[in-house]
Amino acid sequence: MIWAVAAWWLGCQPRAVPDDTGCSTDPPEPGTVWVGEVCAAQVPNAGEGTSADLILANSRFRAIVRSGHDALTLRGVGGGTLVDATLWGSTDHLHELVPLVGGGWLDVESVQAGSDRVTVHGTVRRILPDRPADEGEPRTVHYVVVPDDPWLRIEGAEGFYLHPRGDHDSWGEALFISSGVALAADVTEVEDLGGAVFVDGASALLIAPGEESQALRAQPPRAPAGGQRITGTAPGATRLGLYAAERRVGTVSLTEDSFDTVIPAHVDGVQAERGGRAPSPRTAPGADLALTVGDAGSIRLVPATGSPPMRIDWSTPDGRSGSLFAQSNDRVFGLGAGVHQLALSAGPAYHPQTLTVPVAADEDVVLGVQLRPRFERDRWVLVAFDWPADRDRTFRGSNVTAAQLALASGVGYAVFASEDDVAGVRRGRSSRIPAGLAFRSGVWVGGEGFTVSAWPWNVSAREALHGGLQASGLDALDTAAALTGGPDDDRVLRVDLGWLARAGAPHLADPVPDFVALEAPGPDLAAWAPWFAWLDAERAVIGTGPHTWVPVTDPARFAAVDVEQPLFRGLVATGTGALLQLAVDGLPPGEVIAAGPSAEVDTSDTAAPSWVPVRPTPHHVEIELRNAQGLTDLLLVTTAGRVLQRWSIPAGAESFEAERTGLLPPGWLMAVAVSDDAATSAWAATGQVWIR
């Protein structure tokens, strides 16, 4: 890969570059711009630019373009992407912006700095498997900075792949606001992946204060088409809420009682808002609007002693909504007067609860809450794999939010793994990641019909994919081998059923995965045939699911290793929420049990004949199912997926127990609960007991 960088002295008036910038952290003077190599002090807080990258700056903002090596967050394509974009003195809130050309991005051939631009040239390459691209076409893109202008032009772009950091405000269009900094495209129609977005047709990025973003975005020449002007007063309000067809689509921050701004054309309702008060009545956009916020009011939730961490989703009749995390502490909702809905949940071990709470004017409602357990968990801890975090393109939250959501979902141990990228969740001295959650950071990679995840992973903040796997187009075995990091790293591998089916003969496969992500097996267990083939070959790949339970000594006090020891032994109960347990002669999954004495016993030291045939010893099997809702059949399954015995679970049963005494064939044994209702995908399974 060839790339070149021009020196700082390439500037010329009116886009002047100072003769000697050194490593200045002051913005350029009005009327001037900087374009050139970035120094470490010019990288914004939380930014990921390096001294090999290029900076474009004016008096308002600074933006850093990655040099010719790989993109930061996309596997297998070149650099030349925007990795930092923020105001001077502000934290960076961008993972990466990739201009779209020919449907994809570039195999970069050169990255060059000019007087007012950075130019990237290369040939088109597809960036995600499900988006076609004109691969091989030569294209050129220019990042252009204009003095004192809040818009960074990206000439030659036909759209953006825009991936902001987590915990920002997003309103269903290409506008993201976090900590007072707004990033917005000049086009409003987006394909939202849940974290990142595709903005087809965009060719400029607004980098501006959040409170100015709506007005700046509405000004020519970069205004999205079809805006409408609104004017009026909203005494005491801090923002205007914007609605389209009853859906909340944006806000406009207010710093004074009057407003005069342009909003998107599709907005058909506006209301004045202030924290702790009800909003004004919603009205159609227009001139001389008079909006007055409503009455104050709040709700205080007081969890009962010993309550689990909870997720609280709230909504109001006027269309406002949000989520909060509560960990044995009071939470106050300043929603204003009105009738509000609260939905409380704490994972599969507890019944969710929905509350309708009327709040009168100036009333502070105090509610004690206690979720009812579905079943007794005893010593079992819930494990979650591939939990999304900040860098996941399908998750729009920070690492802190991801950790809180895990704990509020009943999870005690989580593996944070984002697609392609390393999740990078850490618990530092000042971190707000909640106590009570043990976790590891990893990465997952998708291939042709399969996925693989691996952990633990050391994060490299400025390397492509933050140190993750950069290779693409590998087959199942090569992908898994690359993710292990070789014999020195020896990471844990979790694959899916597609990987097991593509890896070839189980007894020849290398590496051997530790875990398999299971999906609903169906009433006849046919979907699990690839897994059964590996178990038959005595490759003890441990089954995991959307919920995986593992016993620990003390569920109130445990570390990651306390979960990992039984987990790697296969002492698990997995599925969609039920807790299914198996014991053979009192021994749990993961244990090896003798099939019985030999068919003949040596009696040469007695008066009996030299050899006397004896019967094999029968084994006693006990099965217990908790949280049986949606499950109709309990199966005892052995080698080759053969069903030894089937029990019907009574309709409406919350729990079910079964036992069996008899001979067991050599091989493996497990319990599985399924549903014969095609409309549900509920299932549960235990780990294997091995019969030798």
Q: From the helix content, strand content and strand pairing, which structural class follows? A: mainly beta
Morphology: globular
Radius of gyration (CA) equals 30 Å
First CA to last CA: what distance?
Answer: 57 Å
Tell me the number of strands.
49
Mean pLDDT over the residues: 89
Count of DSSP-assigned helices: 6
- Largest sheet geometry: 15 strands, mixed
Helix content: under 10%
Descriptive notes:
The protein has 692 residues and is mostly beta strands. It contains six helices and 49 strands. The protein is globular. 46% of the residues are buried.
In short:
With 692 residues, this protein is mostly beta strands. The chain is built from six helices and 49 strands.
Topology, please?
Layout: E1 34-37, E2 54-57, E3 61-65, E4 82-87, E5 94-99, E6 105-113, E7 117-125, E8 138-144, E9 151-155, E10 159-164, E11 169-170, E12 175-178, E13 181-185, E14 191-192, E15 197-200, E16 204-209, H1 213-217, E17 228-233, E18 239-244, E19 247-253, E20 258-263, E21 269-273, E22 289-290, E23 297-303, E24 310-315, E25 321-326, E26 331-333, E27 338-345, E28 353-359, E29 363-369, E30 380-387, H2 399-408, E31 411-419, E32 438-447, E33 450-455, H3 476-484, E34 492-496, H4 497-502, E35 515-517, H5 529-536, E36 542-544, E37 547-551, H6 560-569, E38 573-575, E39 579-584, E40 592-593, E41 600-602, E42 611-613, E43 619-626, E44 633-638, E45 642-648, E46 655-662, E47 667-674, E48 684-686, E49 689-691
Parallel strand pairs: 17-22, 23-29, 30-31, 31-32, 34-35, 35-36, 40-49
Antiparallel strand pairs: 1-2, 2-3, 3-4, 5-10, 6-7, 7-8, 8-9, 9-16, 10-15, 11-12, 12-13, 13-16, 14-15, 17-20, 18-19, 18-21, 23-26, 24-25, 24-27, 27-28, 30-37, 32-33, 33-34, 37-38, 38-48, 39-43, 41-42, 43-46, 44-45, 44-47, 47-48, 47-49
